[in-house]
Amino acid sequence: MLSISNCREWAGTKVVRVGLRRTLTTVSALLIAGVGLGLTAAPASATGTYSTTAAVNVRSGPGTNYGAIGSAPSGAGFTLLCQWQGGTNVNGNATWDRVQFGNGLVGAISDYYTTTPSWNNYAPGTGDCSVSSQMQNAANWANAEKNSPDPTWSDHFGHAWSGWCEQFVEQAEGFTFRFASATDHYNWQRNNGRIATDANPPVGALVFYGGAGGFGHVAVSIGGGQVIGTLGYVGQRLPVSQYPVVGYLSNPYLGWARPIGS
Questions:
Q1: Please, which pLDDT band fits residue 247 given cuts at 50, 70 and 90?
Q2: 182, 189 in Cβ contact below 8 A?
Q3: For residue range 133-161, what is the model confidence (pLDDT) as tens digits?
Q4: Residue 36 CA to its chain's centroid (Å)
Q5: CA dist 222 to 79, 138, 140, 214, 230, Å?
Q6: Contact 208, 216 (CB under 8 A)
Q7: Measured at the alpha carbon of residue 138, what is the angle toward residues 26 and 30, in degrees to the nearest 5?
Q8: Residue 97's beta-bridge partner residues?
Q9: Does residue 168 come out as left (phi exceeding 0), alpha (psi in the -120 to 50 range) or beta?
Q10: Are 226 and 245 in contact (CB under 8 A)?
Q11: CA atoms of 235 and 107, how far apart (whole Å)
Q12: d(CA 84, CA 128)
């Protein structure tokens, strides 16, 4: 197995950014709290206005194992943003809906308690919540960078990619966030309840590892249990490479998260 070390990044400051919103802190400051899924942008495939058929808990993700972030009464109208398949099965229906209610609340509800035409399938014109356009674009960019004429070098930053994994994923995800290191980034995602620990991250997800002298490591999932990321130390010049989520790096696998903005 290959070890990744000293995956250091930005010095001095950390910016968490979504759209035009910025929060600037020192690296040593406490990580931002209370932002969580409220930062999530709706997928471009948002379609349809429906209503609930019973009082529902609005959850942070597609299942009863996700915490409730609010509730809505029977008959509450909502905009259907996207859907998941394979969530908690409710009376035979494992479809869950990502919705926005009229009061602005955004979250996941069981499709069973709605007027959508879905039943273990997608409503017409509705996209999959698992992969946003941002995430698909990130995977496409990472693959293109791997296959570029010089996959050892960042034309944007003007230095070798080795040791700069956080910059790599930030560029892949469209510069919607900025952290001082992969470890800082992982801690923010974990503290906001956004880390999943299975080894099957969706396309475009951020895949986190420990070690690396405390700096950690992060790469971009391309699906199928594979990631694309940087390799090596600052000062080396190794190519951006594709490798399995687990079993290739000696760095401990920590989990994955959707990027800020998805």
A1: very high
A2: no
A3: 899 899 999 999 999 999 999 999 999 99
A4: 11
A5: 30, 9, 8, 25, 14
A6: yes
A7: 20
A8: 83, 109
A9: alpha
A10: yes
A11: 44
A12: 6
Full set of structural domains in the chain with CATH = 13-39+132-257 (3.90.1720.10), 49-113 (2.30.30.40)
The pLDDT, as a whole number, for residue 115 is 96
pLDDT at 7: 66
Calculate mean pLDDT across residues 6-33: 34
Residue 250 identity: S
Rg from Cα positions in the chain: 19
- What would the pLDDT profile of 184-193 be if each residue is shown by its tens digit? 999 999 998 8
Other C-beta atoms lying within 10 Å of the C-beta of residue 165: 30
Q: What's the per-residue H, E or C state across the chain?
A: CECCCCCECCCCEEEEEECCEEEEEECCCCCCCCCHHHHCCCCCCCCCEEEECCCEEEECCCCCCCCEEEEECCCCEEEEEEEECCCCCECCECCEEEEEECCCCEEEEEHHHECCCCCCCCCCCCCECCCCHHHHHHHHHHHHHHCCCCCCEECCCCEECCCCHHHHHHHHCCCCCECCEHHHHHHHHHHCCCCECCCCCCCCCEEEECCHHHCCEEEEEEECCEEEECCCCECECCCCEEEECCCCECCCEEEEECCCCC
Q: Which two tokens stand for residue 247?
A: 């079993």
Is residue 164 within 8 Å of 218, Cβ to Cβ?
Answer: no
pLDDT value at residue 109: 97
Q: For the segment 52-61, what is each residue's pLDDT rounded down to a tens digit?
A: 999 999 998 8
